[in-house]
Write a structure and sequence with these properties.
Elements (H helix, E strand, L loop, with lengths): L6 H8 L3 H7 L3 H29 L7 E6 L2 H11 L7 H4 L6 H4 L4 E7 L4 H12 L7 E4 L7 H5 L3 E4 L6 E8 L6 E9 H14 L7 H97 L6 E8 L4 E6 L10 H16 L3 E2 L3 E4 L2
Length: 371
């Protein structure tokens, strides 16, 4: 595919004067060759842009992704503008159809949008982990804005933008095919993107220098910045509220647990009191029983002492009888020794046994004192 636009049409469409063209020192044929080569390279560039975009969509904190391939006329106009600077870089002076892909680093443009300002830190880490950087990161801020020190510590270069443009720009290396290409990744909030799009749409092509438009766009830029700050504030507020709610819930749960523990302890104490009372009653019954047994024992002792026969004074006589005769036996102390006579006791028991074996009836026991 060849670029068939004439030089005059190009100057008219890009609003480049003949004087500016002459000062640039560029050759139209060389510029046309660059345009033709670029048109043929666009399918590959589109494929790379889609690949990078798909990868960025997986990054934490990314809300949405947009991409574009630089318009051919915008590329040619950029080459002219770079050669109109006070000290043009050598790469722009010597640009041609063979090296333009390495000279222009933003032919592939990918824009990653996020909701809250601090999410750019996570996205920055993801980009650095995924691709090699072609050059240091540029952090564009509005004068007076603060930036995150983490980005600066990682090598980011902070630049104040005269029109209040806010964005973080990365130039990465990408080589899905033989040619080593670069791509520009722009990271910004949705509010920054909204202001940028409106600024570009309103100012270009006719009102880029209008002071009234410029004033209101600056006010709009301030509102967009305030919206970013408000978004971050609300995010932090909800975080604090959630933490406080969690603390409250934990405190309530701990209080409930303490109440339950107290109630359980009180139930255990009440149960222990009942057990102690039961034990006290049992103990009283035991004491009463012991006292009763002691009394009974004492009674037995008293009765025993009353029923003991003094061997020195008592002699017993037993009378056994049957229908034919009666037998009298005597058990007593020996008169001389005053002790029980084993012989007499044995004879008495023998007599008693014989008498019982013969069927005698037991009569009354007679007792008398021995003089």
């Amino acid at each position: 595919m060849s670029f068939d636009m004439t030089h005059l049409v190009f100057l008219e469409k890009t609003k480049i004067s003949q004087n500016e063209w002459d000062r640039s020192g560029l050759d139209w044929e060389n510029l046309s060759d660059i345009a033709s080569s670029y048109l043929n390279s666009q399918p590959a560039l589109i494929s790379i842009a889609e690949q990078i975009s798909s990868r960025i969509r997986t990054f934490e904190g990314v809300h949405s992704v947009r991409w574009r391939i630089k318009d051919t006329l915008h590329l040619l106009k950029k080459i002219v503008r770079k050669n109109l600077t006070e000290k043009p870089q050598e790469k722009w002076i010597n640009i041609n159809s063979k090296n333009y892909l390495t000279c222009a680093t933003d032919l592939i443009g990918v824009r990653a949008l996020h909701l809250f300002k601090d999410e750019c830190i996570t996205i920055d880490e993801c980009i650095r982990t995924t691709w090699d950087l072609h050059e240091p990161v540029t952090i564009y801020i509005r004068e007076g804005d603060s930036t995150y020190p983490e980005l600066v510590e990682s090598g980011g270069v902070v630049k104040d933008h005269e029109f209040g443009y806010r964005s973080i720009h990365y130039i990465i290396n990408s080589q899905p095919e033989k040619i080593n290409l670069t791509a520009e990744i722009q990271v910004r909030t949705i509010f920054q993107e909204g202001w940028s799009e409106i600024d570009h749409r309103v100012k270009y092509p006719d009102y880029s220098d209008n002071p009234e438009v410029k004033l209101f766009l600056q006010l709009f830029n301030g509102l967009a910045g305030s919206a970013d700050e408000m978004g971050s504030f609300v995010k932090n507020l909800t975080k604090v509220l959630a933490e406080n709610e969690q603390i409250t819930n934990n405190a309530f749960a701990e209080r409930q647990a303490a109440i339950e523990e107290r109630d359980q302890a009180m139930e255990q104490i009440a149960s222990s009191i009942l057990e102690l009372q039961a034990l006290r009653i049992k103990d009283k019954n035991s004491q009463d029983l012991i006292q009763s047994m002691q009394l009974n024992m004492q009674k037995l002792k008293d009765n025993q002492s009353r029923t003991i026969i003094q061997p020195s004074t008592i002699i017993n006589k037993g009378i056994f009888s049957n229908s034919n005769r009666e037998t009298i036996f005597t058990v007593g102390l020996d008169k001389n020794t005053q002790s029980w006579s084993n012989e007499k006791l044995s004879n008495s028991l023998d007599t008693l046994g014989k008498t019982l074996s013969k069927g005698f009836n037991i009569g009354a026991t007679q007792t008398r004192k021995i003089e």
